[in-house]
Amino acid sequence: MQRQDTTPAREGWVYGIDRGPEWLFVRLERPADGIAAGANSDGTEVSDAVLATLRENLVQRVVLELDDIGTLDDTLVDAIAELDRRLGNGGGTLRICGLSEANLARLRTRSGLADMPHFAGRLEAAGPRTGMPGRPLAR
């Protein structure tokens, strides 16, 4: 697995990027001050940054690791919904992992995300070498 540096995004989020053979693993971290300064209210800046990284790495599958986000806010819920929509329209795949029970419950309130599978970690989300995902924690 190829590891890339952790880089700040223009809206203040920090991304840790790992590249596997068929998947990109994006670890999203809230900035040290806890505020994603300048983020759009619809979450497009986060989805734009992830999609740009996918294009740069020539992959269409991403696991969004959300262990270090703190509280899931509306902007990030919007970003996940936007990323899922845009990846789905382009034939890509989005998997999420690492949400707390409270954050997962919050995500489930969003129309279109109620059935999104959630996995314990990146290995379960990406699945075995066959490309099939492991069993989600919740659906």
Please tell me about this protein's structure:
By secondary structure, this protein is of the alpha/beta class. It has a single domain (2-126), classed as 2-Layer Sandwich (Transcription Regulator spoIIAA), CATH 3.30.750.24. Helix content is 31%, strand content 22%. α1 packs across α2 (74-89). The longest helix has 16 residues, at 74-89.
- Helical content, roughly? 25-40%
* Mean pLDDT figure: 80
CATH architecture verdict: 2-Layer Sandwich
For the sheet with most strands, the description reads:
7 strands, mixed
The structure class reads alpha/beta
Low-confidence stretches at least 5 residues in length (pLDDT < 50)?
5-10, 37-41
**What is the N-to-C order of secondary-structure elements (H for helix, E for strand)?**
EEEEHEHEHEH
Question: Mind telling me the CATH superfamily name?
Answer: STAS domain
Shape: globular
Strand content: 15-25%
At the fold tier of CATH, the topology name is: Transcription Regulator spoIIAA
Task: Give me the Rg, rounded.
Answer: 14 Å
- Got a strand count? 7
- Just give the CATH class: Alpha Beta
Distance between the termini: 28 Å
Number of helices: 4
Number of domains: 1
